[in-house]
Amino acid sequence: xxxxxxxxxxxxxxxxxxxxxxxxxxxxxxxxxxxxxxxxxxxxxxxxxxxxxxxxxxxxxxxxxxxxxxxxxxxxxxxxxxxxxxxxxxxxxxxxxxxxxxxxxxxxxxxxxxxxxxxxxxxxxxxxxxxxxxxxxxxxxxxxxxxxxxxxxxxxxxxxxxxxxxxxxxxxxxxxxxxxxxxxxxxxxxxxxxxxxxxxxxxxxxxxxxxxxxxxxxxxxxxxxxxxxxxxxxxxxxxxxxxxxxxxxxxxxxxxxxxxxxxxxxxxxxxxxxxxxxxxxxxxxxxxxxxxxxxxxxxxxxxxxxxxxxxxxxxxxxxxxxxxxxxxxxxxxxxxxxxxxxxxxxxxxxxxxxxxxxxxxxxxxxxxxxxxxxxxxxxxxxxxxxxxxxxxxxxxxxxxxxxxxxxxxxxxxxxxxxxxxxxxxxxxxxxxxxxxxxxxxxxxxxxxxxxxxxxxxxxxxxxxxxxxxxxxxxxxxxxxxxxxxxxxxxxxxxxxxxxxxxxxxxxxxxxxxxxxxxxxxxxxxxxxxxxxxxxxxxxxxxxxxxxxxxxxxxxxxxxxxxxxxxxxxxxxxxxxxxxxxxxxxxxxxxxxxxxxxxxxxxxxxxxxxxxxxxxxxxxxxxxxxxxxxxxxxxxxxxxxxxxxxxxxxxxxxxxxxxxxxxxxxxxxxxxxxxxxxxxxxxxxxxxxxxxxxxxxxxxxxxxxxxxxxxxxxxxxxxxxxxxxxxxxxxxxxxxxxxxxxxxxxxxxxxxxxxxxxxxxxxxxxxxxxxxxxxxxxxxxxxxxxxxxxxxxxxxxxxxxxxxxx
Length: 805
Hints:
Number of helices: 4
Number of strands: 75
CATH architecture of the domain at 220-227 and 250-295 and 311-450: 3 Solenoid
CATH topology of the domain at 220-227 and 250-295 and 311-450: Pectate Lyase C-like
InterPro entries: PbH1 (IPR006626), Pectin_lyas_fold (IPR012334), Pectin_lyase_fold/virulence (IPR011050)
Largest sheet: 34 strands, mixed
Distance between the termini: 46 Å
Organism: Candidatus Nitrosacidococcus tergens
Helix content: under 10%
Protein name: Right handed beta helix domain-containing protein
Shape: globular
Strand content: 35-45%
Structural class: mainly beta
CATH class of the domain at 220-227 and 250-295 and 311-450: Mainly Beta
């Protein structure tokens, strides 16, 4: 995009944005009483022509009108499918063009403040702190939504707004852009925006704020060595240097009799992973402080993972990266029977490591035994800015085991392993990570495989804003001879805990205050134990004013939680909130994986995740599963921050766990995927304890949207919406666990059953799907207008223009 918009235009846009919303607020205030103005708190953010949207808010008239305005200033109304005071389902006309729209809800002279659909949303960037002339990647939603759009990046100094710059961006897909960071950007705080349309008021993202460091002319010293004695001596001499140094090790085979330490600012560079070979030849000594988890499996016997805690746990590792700004490249590592971990990168809560680079490495022949230890090719703990690329990694546990990782890239590797996950994240926060272009190799152990290709699971934090794309592989199952309910291609989950559940004492635009003495945060001051940090929690509004909103906690100050961004609509003193870990804004795109127990699962909790363009074949259960849960009554939770407790999972702790808790499934998008040969193609589901005890106060699964997917060959339904794994409660227990989930324009082939929505699902939208049954005999039993749906008497199911053949 050329410089369509100069600085004056940008200022005009910002002025327009202010006046635009101020004007509507003024009109609304003058036209009707304050307690009658409709409000919109959360909504479907993407909708093509002839698709549906869910809006959540308050004070919606039962005869509401929905007014849309496009970039050409043309106005039109959507079709209201279902409405109550706080929810509206709307379908766009087929005749409109694909565009970014503003919309208002109301009637007569009383209208809500406008919101936008299909507008660009900028979520995060990589790397976190760009360097001059470095390629920067931007991630978000609808960054290139408009066809033939040419998005541009606008940079503006926060400290000096008069300084700004336009840069052309390259489109990777609808969710990812790239551009080159300029070499003349000054240090300080900068804002990044994406512009995708000439009508700037509709085509701009909100700003993403980053810190830019002063430009430094980096000098890297280079030293050549050709034998192991010189290598060890050079590393020893440089162990306290502040200068960055590359030690180049010549081609050849080198024997190591002990763990090789790589200190701060040292990069070990070989002549190539087939030319420079490090071989472990002696029994290694154990090193404290390395976590072990995710045991391998013996043939036909499951050895359940044993949790080890950071303090006092030991492992034998061939190479230990012990300082920041360091790494290895262009070499091979061959282990022996004592080599449990190939390369360990071990920071701590107090002292995380930064900027670790591993590339063109081959790791193999690790130990097959580790009674209380995982057997990873690479283990990384508490690292910001980790890069593992173009490497071949054979792990007898995980190929790559990550704990508390951010701003990192795991790219273009060939990997294999036998653990719970071949690429396996565990324990702490996982954010702003790229897992892309990795290929899964057959294991070196006959008839055994890794249980999952990618397993992003945390005990002490959330999994949010990661990019998981273009990975491929096959054969992910539990060990033979075991009856384990595991074996997903990609599984993302968090072990939930809820420091607070209830109503807030006070709410501001970007903060929330908890009631006095409700939460004991002092436990987190004990740095000798791991726990979910405040920044690992999210605040979710599950009921009342502001329902459907989710905000990350940035910091804690006494009883005040400061938030990542302002509320659209502030919750009030009657709103019900829950503080929880979350799976949030992950982009899962264009992965191709076959032969697994299940395909892609968002387990227990997930909001605003996008699953698109994936190809999943030969899954014995669901191809794609969006799963929410309330596994206990809220009164049963102990409401404190989560920390280590050796009685887990048997103790009655404050944590809810991996399979229980208040785990919402909000506004996830699933589109343009292929699911071939599965039990159920795509499932939106909950396991709701409340259906057994009665009384459903709020829905758990809300506003998920499934469209334009291809499903071919299932043993049961093509698509389901409803309960999974729980007995259906008494029909006298009023309420719905699922609400406003949208299934549209999918093609489902070679199936015995079409679709099912059970009695706990309210206002499911089923439109313009094409179902091809396996036989004409099955077709005789189903009328075109009657899909198998079991509902409560007062529930609504919206069905339009579905075709059954």
